[in-house]
Specification:
The complex is a heterotrimer of chains A (259), B (364) and C (298). Chain A is an alpha/beta fold. Chain A has nine helices and ten strands. In chain A, strand 9 (223-228) and strand 10 (231-236) form a beta hairpin. Chain A is globular. Chain A starts with 5 loop residues before the first strand and ends with a helix. In chain B, a hairpin with a 2-residue loop joins strand 2 (165-167) and strand 3 (170-172). With 364 residues, chain B is an all-alpha fold. Chain B has a two-stranded antiparallel ribbon with strand order 1-4. A two-stranded antiparallel ribbon of chain B has the order 2-3. Chain C has 298 residues and is mainly α. Chain C is built from twelve helices and two strands; from the N terminus they run H-H-H-H-E-E-H-H-H-H-H-H-H-H. Chain C has helices spanning 2-32, 39-56, 61-90, 95-117, 142-164, 167-176, 178-184, 188-210, 221-226, 228-235, 240-259, 269-284, and strands spanning 132-135, 138-141. In chain C, helix 1 packs across helix 6 (167-176) and helix 2 runs parallel beside helix 4. The termini of chain C are far apart. Classes of the chains: A alpha/beta (259), B mainly alpha (364), C mainly alpha (298). Chains in contact: A-B, A-C, B-C. At the B-C interface, helix 6, helix 10, helix 12 and helix 14 of B face helix 3, helix 4, helix 10 and helix 12 of C.
């Protein structure tokens, strides 16, 4: 692919008179691991939701490769190669883990309700092939033994891994991770961080990460965008961003308030 | 693989299933005529319940218009079977297809809305449908109602009163014929739903039920999935309606009402939503109960003292719906799972769950 | 022409009653995103209760009304607190489940009313009876006038409450995210109690007037109340103004269709005309005339 995998220009979102974020500009190169960070309320998740076509922005444009992302509907994202995880974990409690991951394969399969209900040819073949693929995704994240369990019965860290497996099973070109280490213990955080790095290294995917935890981001990201109160205050490699005075003020200021 | 297959076949669940089917097949020979009639209503009703189970149980779309599709199926069967003397082998599936077609036409409008709005629109469909039935006298007989055709496949396989079928010395009478026909069709519909639940669209429906927006972002076409559920549900409703009308042999447009829709809703709630067998258990309770209630002493017979059977049944259904949803939202299947759950060594402590019945792959 | 104005007046009044019922739905929906299918049956109970108190027990009419309001509001609040809250919070069931519980409640209550009081019509015992004002050839029945007056007062009260009290915003916050609302110190239990209590009271007043069309409680009232559904669909579930406009439109549609019924639409078309209108509107505007596409959190 020539040119950036994702190019965001002048993107802004407002709810009535409340500005979620405005004038955000950045681009992500193919195969790059790009992170968006900022204190809570900075607008990161809103940005993510715009990119997932859940919200429609009030200004700006987004190009996914050579396509206009904003022209796509939410359900067309998967076919366009975009996969994401969810901050609040959108795992389906009533289905097994394997079935949850198989939901990620939905757009890669074709059998409709007739083929499925009558269980002929195409449905059978697809089930076999795609269950295999789903198991591979689970194996990659180290959760293949949970295939028959229900998500409810599993620990939080494992569920996060399963979410990631599902996103991987979608065979995305652009993988978006929404706060992958939120609410985690030290050990779980290390595990997920290592997993994210492994995904990047072994699969060579373009990855867009939204996160609050600066430590994790500085460890894995190649470039970082910092948001504060909906404004873009820095966009550079981690080493530079870490020393940026405005960034320090945004985070330290928050710590001072909390103290 | 074959060792696992043998293990599955010998498992308690498979034995339970086989036993259940054997009982179902032998049942008519041990029941009195009245009980046999009730059993037939249960089996026929189960077909419709399985259909609603796909729409509301799996796909999570509350529909109060099921009675309309039952009526469409019934009247299609009546017009083709009685007015045009078709063979039942044609008018029964035709009833399903016409009802499915109605579902296909209505679905896109209804499903543009969020789930709760859909429930209201389906009430509208029901009332408008009743109005259409009332005014289409040539098809429905108008407010006075009409007779429905007896199932007739051939001169030797005719379900008219007084006819019997002899299979190797075993005699099947009118009620029994309908019972077995219903059972065969029920078995086919259960197989269909079981397959559906383990494949792409079945999973999509469940995803849509739990969290629609996330499902969409993962590539599921919400409209298409919901419409598919609607069409499947309407198809089974149509077949159920055709058999129901034929077995009752007479019905009026006013019979396809909100109470009937709610009976089916009660059946899937009581039986267990999102399961294959749930609707069957629920149908057993709801349609079996209707007959039991008639025999209770404080229920009035023909308008004499006591509470009317309709009122009492409605109250029982209402209380059962509330009771199950508050205590065990997964219905009877859920209660069954509670009693048979055992801790598993692998799989992170998952408990046995009836919705896992018949998963194709063997456990790791 | 007087026929038109007569029908228009009666339709407007009936519409106001539907508006009251629709408001009952809206109030609950705005605080918890639940559609309370039992609203119609609460109305039914209210009408019978008032009738029984006034006619059988000789209680003065307005006192009956107040007693009914108190009892129904208490019952509604109790049901919400004891059953729905438990299901939603402790069992973590989705709204779908709660809505179906209200459907279950609705059938139970409707059947209970029929079982207790039987299918015959009763007298309501209201003081205005069939007294009316005559003007310009149109008969303005007092019961219908009172319906309009009551609704006007109640809607004004709503507007003021929403605008000038903290509860309006608190209600919407609770519906949007109950956990967050709790965290911010919003008295969530009180909000729900308020919503259901108000809904119960509205059901009583609506029942009072609906029974006046044609002036007697009867079991079919429950079904009449179902006509409020097209009203809330038209108006959108969230907007009190929408509920009122929706209600009035439906009332007018129903009575004008009844009066001017073209034969080719069959008998009793006026009973389903509101639903037809509802579906036509939805084809054009899927979220009703006033509704907006709900914003869902991911």
């Amino acid at each position: 692919m020539t040119g950036p995998a994702l190019r965001v220009s002048g993107l802004g979102l407002r709810f009535g008179s409340v500005v979620a974020f405005e004038d955000v500009n950045f681009s992500v190169e193919p195969g790059e691991l790009f992170a968006v960070i900022g204190p809570n309320g900075a607008g990161k998740t809103s940005l993510f939701n715009v990119l997932s076509r859940v919200y429609t922005p009030s200004a700006g444009s987004v190009r996914l490769g050579d396509r206009d992302l904003l022209a796509l509907k939410a359900r067309q994202l998967a076919a366009a190669g975009v996969g994401r995880t969810f901050q609040n974990l959108a795992l389906y409690g009533d289905m097994t883990v394997l079935d949850n991951v198989l939901i990620g394969r939905h757009h890669l399969m074709r059998s409709g309700f007739m083929a499925g209900g009558l269980w002929f040819g195409r449905a059978r073949r697809e089930e076999r092939v795609h269950r295999e693929a789903a198991r591979e995704a689970l194996a990659f994240v180290g959760a293949e033994s949970c295939a028959d369990a229900r998500p409810k019965a599993l620990p939080y860290g494992t569920r996060k891994k399963i979410e990631l497996a599902r996103a991987l099973a979608m065979e995305p070109g652009l993988l978006m991770l929404d706060e992958p280490v939120a609410g985690m213990s030290e050990a779980e955080r290390a595990e997920i961080t290592e997993l994210v790095q492994r995904v990047h290294r072994e699969r060579g995917l373009t990855m867009l990460l939204v996160e609050h935890d600066m430590g994790m981001v500085m460890q894995v990201a190649q470039r970082v965008l910092v948001l504060d109160f909906g404004r873009q205050i820095a966009c550079d490699v981690p080493a530079v961003v870490q020393r940026d005075p405005e960034v320090i003020r945004a985070y330290l200021g928050e710590e001072l308030q909390a103290a | 693989m074959s060792a696992a297959l043998v293990q599955r076949v010998r498992s308690p669940r498979a034995l339970g299933w086989t036993a259940g089917w054997v009982v179902a097949i032998l049942l008519p020979s041990v029941l009195s005529e009245g009980q046999e009639s009730t059993a037939t209503f249960v089996v026929i009703g189960a077909i419709g319940a399985v259909g609603l189970g796909v729409l509301t149980g799996y796909a999570g779309q509350i529909s109060l218009g099921h009675a309309f599709f039952l009526g469409v199926g019934a009247y299609t069967g009546a017009v083709l079977g009685a007015n045009h003397h078709w063979n039942a082998i044609f008018w029964i599936p035709a009833a399903g297809l016409v009802a499915a077609l109605c579902g296909l036409i209505i679905a896109p409008t209804a499903l543009r809305l969020r789930g709760l709005y859909l429930a209201i629109v389906t009430i509208g469909v029901l009332f408008i449908g009743q109005d259409i039935f009332l005014n289409s006298s040539s098809w429905t007989g108008g407010p006075e109602g009409r007779e429905f055709p007896i199932v007739h496949f051939s001169s030797s396989l005719d379900f008219a009163y007084g006819n019997t079928l002899n299979i190797g010395g075993y005699t099947i009478d009118h009620n029994g014929l309908y019972y077995y026909l219903g059972l065969i069709i029920l078995a086919i519909s259960l197989l269909f739903v079981w397959n559906l639940s383990r494949t792409r669209m079945g999973r999509a429906m469940q995803a849509v039920r739990e969290r629609e927006l996330a499902a969409s972002v993962m590539g599921i076409d919400l409209a298409r999935t919901k419409i598919a559920a609607f069409v499947v549900s309407s198809f089974f409703a149509g077949i159920c309606g055709a058999l129901y009308g034929s077995f009752l042999s007479f019905a009026q447009p006013g019979d396809w009402d909100l109470t009937l829709s709610i009976q089916y809703l009660a059946a899937i709630i009581i039986g267990g939503m999102g399961t294959v067998m749930g609707p069957v258990l629920g149908a057993f309770v709801v349609f079996g109960l209707a007959d039991v209630i008639k025999t209770l002493s404080f229920v009035s017979q023909n308008g004499s003292g006591g509470i009317s059977p309709n009122d009492f049944s409605s109250m029982v259904y209402g209380v059962l719906i509330i009771g199950f949803l508050v205590v065990e939202p997964r219905g009877l299947m859920g209660l069954g799972a509670r009693f048979t759950s055992r801790p598993r060594r692998r799989g992170g402590g998952a408990t046995l769950d009836p919705r896992r019945e018949g998963r194709q792959f063997a456990p790791d | 022409m007087t026929k038109f104005w007569q029908l228009a007046f009666e339709g407007f009044s009936l519409g106001c009653v539907y508006a009251l019922i629709a408001l009952g739905f809206t109030v609950i929906y705005r605080s918890s995103a639940v559609i309370n299918f039992a609203q119609g049956s609460m109305l039914l109970i209210a009408a019978y209760l008032i009738s029984w108190l006034t006619v059988n027990e000789g209680v003065p009419f307005f006192v009956s009304m107040l007693i009914s309001i108190a009892m129904l509001a208490a019952a509604a609040v109790g049901f919400q607190a004891a059953v729905l809250r438990r299901v939603r919070r402790m069992l973590e069931q989705p709204i779908f489940t709660v809505v179906m519980i209200t459907i279950g409640l609705s059938i139970t209550l409707t059947a209970a009313v029929d079982a207790i009081w039987g299918p015959q019509q009763r007298l309501l015992g209201d003081p205005w009876g069939s007294s009316a004002v005559h003007a310009a050839g149109v008969v303005f029945n007092w019961d219908k006038l009172w319906a309009i007056i009551f609704v006007a007062v109640i809607v004004a009260g709503f507007y003021a409450f929403d605008r000038y009290s903290r509860y309006g915003l608190a209600t919407r916050a609770t519906a949007a995210d109950e956990e967050a609302a709790l965290a911010v110190g919003i008295p969530v239990m009180r909000i729900h109690a308020l919503a259901w209590g108000v809904a119960g009271s509205l059901a009583v007043v609506a029942g009072l007037f609906l029974a006046g069309f044609p002036n007697s409680p009867n079991p079919a009232l429950g079904n009449s109340a179902l006509l409020a559904f097209p009203a809330i669909i038209l108006g959108g579930l969230e907007s009190p103004l929408g509920a009122v406009v929706g209600g009035i439109v439906i009332g007018l549609v129903q009575l004008l269709t009844q009066g001017y019924e073209p034969g080719w639409l069959g008998n009793n078309f006026y009973e389903v005309a509101p639903y037809v209108v509802m579906i036509i509107v939805l084809l054009i505007r899927p979220y009703g005339l006033f509704g907006a596409r709900p914003v869902e959190r991911l």
